[in-house]
Amino acid sequence: MKGLMQDGPLMISSLIQIGADVYGGSEVVSVVAGEGVVRHTYRDINKRAKQLAQALQSAGIGMTDRVATLAWNDHRHLEAYYGVSGMGAVVHTINPRLFPEQLIYIINHAEDRILLTDPMFLPLIEKIIDNCPKLEKIVAMCTAENLPESSLDIIAYEDFIGGFDGNYTWPEFEETAASSLCYTSGTTGNPKGALYTHRSTVLHALMAGTPSVTGTGSNTTLMPVVPMFHVNAWGQPYYAPLTGSKLVLPGPGLDGASLYNIIHAEGVTNTAGVPTIWLNLLKHTREVEGNLDVLEHVIIGGSAAPSAMIEEFQTTYGTQVVHAWGMTEMSPLGSSGVLPPHIEKTATEAEKFDLKVKQGHRVWGVDMKIVDDEEVPQPHDGKARGHLVVRGPWIISSYYNNHDANEKAFTKDGWFYTGDIATIDPDNFLQLVDRSKDVIKSGGEWISSIDLENEAVGAAGVGEAAVIGVAHPKWDERPVLVIVPEDSDNPPSEDSIRDHLSTRIAKWWMPDLIVFRNEIPHGATGKILKTDLRDELKDVLQDAG
Ligand code: AMP
User: Fold this and answer.
1) Backbone angles phi, psi at 247, to 5 degrees
2) The pTM is what?
3) pLDDT digits (tens, 9 = 90+) for 122-170
4) Which of 195, 191, 233 is nearest to 104 (CA)?
5) In degrees rounded to 5, what are phi and psi of residue 180?
6) For this structure, is 2 an active site residue?
7) Residue 455: CB within 6 Å of ligand 1?
8) Beta strands in 214-341 (DSSP E)
9) What's the 339 CA to ligand 1 centre distance in angstroms?
10) CA of 332 to the centre of ligand 1 (A)
11) How far apart are CA 166 and CA 61, in angstroms?
């Protein structure tokens, strides 16, 4: 017997519509390059997103056509999230830090017809435009007065939408229609596209905008520092209007001082980003002897949150860390470090801290298991390691138009290979051992580069740390530790780092070599680019015995 409930498609536009109808007075505060701090409400954003939908329609954009963005986090980018998907087209968020060849590849692969771009990226587009024949129109996300000189045929966003009145009803169509597209910033090979649906995005927002996953409450001020070009800014632009949360969009200035100031000025209670960003915020807060009293939760993901960082946020500043894990292919959230109530009530502070260092527990909607090389499931005992595989309604069922990538991405029974090696404990807390390509195989045993980095950044004077496996004549591979000192004029000594590590890691994990650098390369999403380091250091242990 079937149940007797009405059916209705889950539409992304419904999120901004409830924002406008019920939380219409909640603010969206943006820092816009060239304009400063700009304030809107969800009511304004809904109307402006509808104007954009009308403008796109009038430019000939129809269902499932791709409209690209090349932009930082601000209100116009938010309007593109809703305006483009809301009218049935696909918003393709592009990472401006990609190399020009990668930009050309993904614009052509996605067959983007219109590009909405921050004016600061126009010089970049001038360089690649001749190689992007399908691109018909470029809209600069600014006012007509701020339109820069350019050799391109461009129109200012405010002129593009200005002729339309926003008198528009969001259309309803199949919830499985494509809504948005994001390419993984893979370190090897061409980027691969994850094509989200309305249904996957709405379900993800319903899950993520809850206290038990992200600490989002009914009176939260959210600030995605994670860029809106990177996996839907981890869902915040979608669950902000759904929950009525004030939304702060910090624009391009992501240095410690700018973040510190906006957190205080706008009363940000809940923010999200990769560890590198928080290193800068913590450094600045220390330097000005400030506080983070207002900040209740910081969601850290993208790379492992070092234990020293978790400790400083929680113990020094009273900000709860939510250590989360996810992927572009997972919309992105797969796990959350918000402790379940029974653990919160009964565990000791030390036990809680140990759990916070792990990558959190699976969230509703995401099934996970670990399997060996033959895809045999391994026990969830916190010890057995395996390839982490996942399935669920906001996880890709295939890459966009990429037969080769699809062949290797799924188990025989259809679970998605994350490319991560992990343990899962009996409480379902996940601990990432490594990316399968980063784990160091020394004499048949595995050394986790994540664990080593985590311990190394806790040593006095260490700013950032990266560990790579380097070919070794006897052990196959051995770890090499690359250190960026906190203060380049006053670096820590190699001995002090080795002393620090010696009490925290197994003896055979001790890096064979410690290298000091003023900076290490970061990829387009702020993660350490180990491929460059591996290339550069591949021969350093050749003569070791
Ligand atoms: P991306 O698709 O660029 O977001 O990258 C996803 C990958 O980032 C994952 O497969 C992990 O290897 C890594 N990652 C994400 N979150 C974490 C985390 N909390 N700790 C360690 N690695 C992470």
Assistant:
1) -120, 130
2) 0.91
3) 999 999 999 999 999 999 999 999 999 999 999 999 999 999 999 999 9
4) 191
5) -160, 155
6) no
7) no
8) 221-224, 246-249, 270-273, 297-300, 320-323, 325-326, 333-336
9) 20
10) 9
11) 17
